[in-house]
Design a protein that fits this description.
The chain is mainly α and 392 residues long. Helix 2 (21-42) runs antiparallel to helix 14 (354-372), helix 5 runs antiparallel to helix 6 and helix 7 runs antiparallel to helix 13 (312-336). The N and C termini lie far apart (53 Å). It has one domain (30-372). The chain has helices at residues 2-14, 21-42, 47-65, 73-90, 119-135, 144-163, 167-183, 188-205, 211-225, 236-247, 255-265, 275-308, 312-336, 354-372; strands at residues 110-111, 116-117. The chain is 66% helix and 1% strand. Strands 1-2 form a two-stranded antiparallel sheet. It is globular.
């Protein structure tokens, strides 16, 4: 027992406690607290459940911190395989409801005994680790063909999630790939080629979208152009969310008044997907700026952690995890204020939902694991970047 304690103390003494990763932790804590208050504004019955999920998320983050991030390479591929299997299970026709219970026409949750989980949330972590593992010992991302394997690692789970259907989560996988490829030194001209191909592919996939997904795209375009013809049908949730955001004004309506307005207006998913509208209504522009500022603090902390890490694997984990959370915030707040289609995307740390909250904290734990550990005496040279001559 004494020996174990001694080894633990020695390990803690070697950690780099002055890491910028604490910026991510601080931002995540404040966002989680704001989330509890916002959820309590509209669904006080969910506060205890969200608090329990937060405690589980903190434990999961600690579990991600304790082992060295360098050992995560061993679980990256098994985790990726597990996520793909679970995503495929969701799509099996006739699967028993005790295992996969559809909600609102979507099969996204798997029963794991005491609770249900969303494999798509776990897939976010798996994609970050798998791409980091793939890129850590390679330089072929400096060519166009070298970009294809890591992008494929994002496209496969993206396609499975899209079929669930879950357009919002599916939109996150490509930004993860691009952020990590940029950190790995991919050339901008090669990335631009991929973007062109991706846009063409997205246009070809429009006929494959389900009717309600097409309706959401139409509703977004109507909101942008000022067309109110869909305000009482497919654009109802978006229009009502923007009304709540506008009603918050500069300083908000306060808790009691905001709760009353939301009760009378019946904003769908106000505790979950539309929680940003609750924040805007209760705290006004001030609340919106605080949310955006905290996520900016989080992504800056993640990027600074990556900049101070000399190991490719850790650097890519920090970039992938922090950029994923920031991209998810952009999608969620964008759909709430009417500049993106409504996709059922949660606001990390803030929205009600156990799987989303635990996943967000695992990602923060991964960043902190990278930041706390200084580079070993022997480490691989950092990624090479373009020197401007085209031969870097």
């Amino acid at each position: 027992m004494t020996g174990t304690r001694s080894r633990l103390l020695q390990r803690l003494a070697r950690w780099h406690w002055g890491t910028p990763a604490w910026m991510c932790v601080g931002a995540a804590v404040l966002l989680s607290v704001i989330g509890l208050v916002a959820i309590g504004t509209v669904r006080s019955d969910l506060v205890v459940r969200q608090t329990v999920a937060l405690c589980i998320g903190l434990c999961a983050a600690a579990a991600a911190v304790l082992p060295s991030h360098r050992r995560l390479d061993m679980i990256a591929w098994p985790l990726m395989g597990l996520c793909l299997v679970l995503l495929l299970v969701l799509l099996i026709p006739g699967i028993p409801e005790f295992l996969v219970r559809p909600r609102n026409g979507a099969s996204r949750w798997v029963n794991v005994g005491l609770t249900e989980m969303q494999p798509s949330e776990l897939a976010k972590v798996a994609v970050v680790l798998a791409i980091a593992s793939w890129l850590r010992l390679r330089r072929n991302q400096r060519s166009f063909t070298g970009l294809l394997p890591p992008i494929l690692l994002g496209l496969v789970p993206m396609g499975l999630v899209l079929v669930e259907p879950d357009l919002g989560t599916a939109l996150l996988f490509l930004p993860i790939c691009f952020a990590m490829l940029i950190a790995a030194g991919a050339r901008w001209r090669d990335l631009s080629k991929v973007c062109t191909i991706g846009l063409a592919g997205a246009a070809l996939m429009i006929p494959l979208l389900r009717p309600h997904q097409v309706d959401r795209l139409d509703a977004m375009w109507a909101q942008i152009t000022g067309d109110t013809s869909l305000a009482d049908s497919s654009g109802y949730q978006g229009q009502l969310a923007m009304m709540m955001v506008a009603a918050g004004g500069a300083v908000g309506q306060g808790g009691a008044q905001a709760a009353e307005l939301l009760t009378w207006n019946h904003l769908p998913e106000d505790h979950n997907d539309m929680v940003f509208a609750v924040i805007a209504l209760r705290w006004g522009i001030f609340g919106q700026v605080v949310i955006w500022g905290l996520f900016l603090l989080l992504v800056v902390g993640g990027l600074l952690t990556a900049a101070t890490c000399r190991e490719p694997f850790g650097r890519l984990i920090a970039v992938g995890a922090s950029s994923l959370l920031f991209a998810q915030m952009m999608v969620n707040t964008g759909m709430t204020i009417g500049v993106m289609p409504i996709t059922g995307m949660t606001l990390p740390f803030v929205s009600a939902g156990g799987s989303s909250l635990v996943t967000a904290w695992i990602l923060v734990g991964l960043v902190l694991s990278v930041g706390l550990r200084p580079p070993s005496r022997l480490w691989r040279e950092q990624f090479a970047f373009d020197d401007g001559s085209g031969h870097g």
